[in-house]
Design brief:
This protein has two helices and eight strands. With about 180 residues, the chain is mainly beta.
Length: about 180
Amino acid sequence: MKNIAILLAFLLSCTYVVHAQKTYATKTAQIKFLSKTPAEDIEAVNNQVESRLVDKSGQMTFALLIKGFKFENELMQDHFNKPDYMDSDKYPKATFKGVITNIATVNFAKDGAYPVMVDGDLTIRGVTQKTKAAGLIIIEKGKVISKSSFKIKLKQFGLTGKDIGTVIANDMEITVSAKYE
């Protein structure tokens, strides 16, 4: 009985530090795409992308409205949203749900740039594909920034219009940047 009392006294005198998981979020992440073609480069940007990042588990999500992409050329923007390409009335959103597979290498309490690998499901035009990408988590004065650049094959997402492979490239380069709160 005496040993139990000593153990209880010891445990009560100890200070425990519990690290709660934190969710970082933003509604102003940016996704750009670039499609290089012989005629001209096609690029657009969407600055109204929602994203969440959970520090302990590495869970990461992105969601955006397709009509949020802005082009320099209004005709390109109109064509991009039509049924023969993105069909944004039928498929208004694109999403990514995944996880940073090496989240344990990121020290959210220390400034630095941490290389990460992200693995998850990318859904475009109602088609979901497994996607892996290298990225970077940057910690700067307590703020968290994520960045990545990767390519997708348009045909994997059901984009098979007559211009793909001729006027529009088969691949599209995607660049992602999120500054979390």
